[in-house]
Amino acid sequence: MYHLGMDTTQPQITEERSEDVSDAEAVAEELELVEEISIDGMCGVY
Amino acid sequence: MTALTERMKDGLDAPICITWELTYSCNLSCVHCLSSSGRRDPKELTTEEAFRVVDELREMQVFYVNIGGGEPMIRRDFFDIVEYATSSGVGVKFSTNGTYIDAATAQRLAAMDYLDIQISLDGADAATNDAIRGEGSYDTAMTAMRHLKDAGFGEFKISVVITRHNIAQLDEFKAIADEFGAQLRITRLRPSGRAVDTWEELHPTLDQQRTLHQWLLGHGENVLTGDSFFHLNALGESLPGLNLCGAGRVVCLIDPIGDVYACPFVIHDEFLAGNVRNDGGFAAVWRTSNCFTELRGPQSAGACASCGSWDACQGGCMAAKFFTGLPLDGPDPECVGGDGEYALASAGAIPRPSGDHSKPIAVQLGRRSNA
Amino acid sequence: MLDSPLKLHPSVALRPEPFGALAYHYDNRRLIFLKHPTIVDVVKDLEQHPDLQATLSAHGIDEQQWDNYDKAICSLIESDVVVAR
């Protein structure tokens, strides 16, 4: 397997919230409940 | 980088969309073909096998497939597969050189739902286009587009791979798209497939990349980019889109013989994740393959760690690095900070793509009369 | 929008994901990330209630959050993912 640039030396940094945060707080923290991303044209074909 | 994009890096339960090359057979021999297409592979998926792939995509709720090739319309069961997909709720966008779209076919296509078409055009005039795609291919594409317009297909796409020679024609491409009521899609040339040998003389210069970034920003979401230019974000303002490498995380490739690769631009054993013919089919490859699991793991910025632009460009395109002999945890060969050029000077051996399906006649860059 | 009767557009597919769901509109090819499980439940359930605020109440969503949900639903209406009924 080619070396994919896997970082084995450092712990993964994530933005996961801790599990004891209530749903309401989570929603407040998230602020944006929906997000649109343009995918029309995505995926490679020439 | 938004929290959402960070989450995309861990992969999704199923791809957002996939590229599905239906055949390696092609009537053209474009010098930059990402799949080195030309001759049909006798091990090509049968119609029944193709239907099973569609069944899986439906079950996984993959919203749409990008069908390509080769020239996908060469397959005699092309319409059977497309109709099977769209009637299963898997939307289809297919990419074609237009050879097989006559007036009657255009009408048939216009009557179908959940279908989008992309016509490839790599020059705003015949000389520029045909130097890349072969003699007569400009007229062929224009004729197909006229048929689609006359048939009332609606807004199809015109897909342009940006090169050093056509980048000055951006406004002309836009005018052609407007004339046909089509939407323009501009994508990045990768050193994949046959372009492993032509990339060096075809890829845009650094100055041209700056011009392109400004032009794309000026046109916003009206011009599609297939999310292919996120390495340009290091120039400042970010382009619309996901802006990260989606390989094995949100997209992948199924090739004509059912091999699944991380993305359409890395047809090489190093990025081969499995085959849809094996136990568990496509779903097992997507969910459990070592290759994809590794791509979804934390990635190191490597040599780019100390660069202030890494957050914006994410180190660029994996395929572009791989097929120019650069390490994956370093700058993109077209790094707008100039680090790619520096890295290329000491790049390793350039890997060869896994399959060469080119027709026996050697493909050469055509001569351009206006060069 | 709080007092509007709404529903999910019939051409929209929702696909569950760990963070919530992906909504894909087959007609306009827009892809929307619903970034919390609760907004997914609300969107799915709009048609079962007289209006948006009734849906929010039924899902026990704190009134302080209603503006935020209203904003989210408005953007979904803009994308034609949610429509009036």
Could you explain how this protein is built, in words?
The complex is a heterotrimer of chains A (46), B (371) and C (85). Chain A is an alpha+beta fold. Chain A has one helix and one strand. Chain A has one helix at 23-30; one strand spanning 34-37. The longest helix of chain A is centred in the middle third of the chain and has 8 residues, at 23-30. Chain B has 371 residues and is of the alpha/beta class. In chain B, helix 3 (78-87) links the parallel strand 2 (64-68) and strand 3. In chain B, helix 2 packs parallel to helix 3 (78-87) and helix 4 (103-110) packs across helix 6. The longest helix of chain B has 14 residues, at 137-150. With 85 residues, chain C is α+β, with helices and mostly antiparallel strands. In chain C, 34% of the residues lie in helices and 26% in strands. Chain C is built from three helices and five strands, in the order E-E-E-E-H-H-H-E. In chain C, the strands form two sheets. Chain C has a three-stranded antiparallel sheet, covered by helices on one side. A two-stranded antiparallel ribbon of chain C has the order 1-5. Chain C is globular. The model of chain C has no long low-confidence stretch (mean pLDDT 94). Chains in contact: A-B, A-C, B-C. The interface between A and C is medium-sized, with 16 and 20 residues. Strand 1 (34-37) of chain A pairs antiparallel with strand 4 of chain C, so a sheet runs across the interface.
List the helices and strands and how they pair.
The complex is a heterotrimer of chains A (46), B (371) and C (85).
Chain A (H helix, E strand, L loop, with lengths): L22 H8 L3 E4 L9
Chain B lengths: L2 H6 L8 E5 L25 H13 L4 E5 L9 H10 L3 E6 L6 H8 L4 E6 L5 H8 L3 H14 L6 E6 L7 H10 L3 E6 L10 H4 L3 H14 L33 E2 L4 E3 L10 E4 L5 H8 L1 H7 L13 H4 L4 H5 L16 H6 L27
Parallel strand pairs in B: 1-2, 1-7, 2-3, 3-4, 4-5, 5-6
Antiparallel strand pairs in B: 7-8, 8-9
Chain C lengths: L5 E3 L3 E6 L2 E6 L5 E4 L2 H9 L6 H7 L7 H13 L3 E3 L1
Antiparallel strand pairs in C: 1-5, 2-3, 3-4
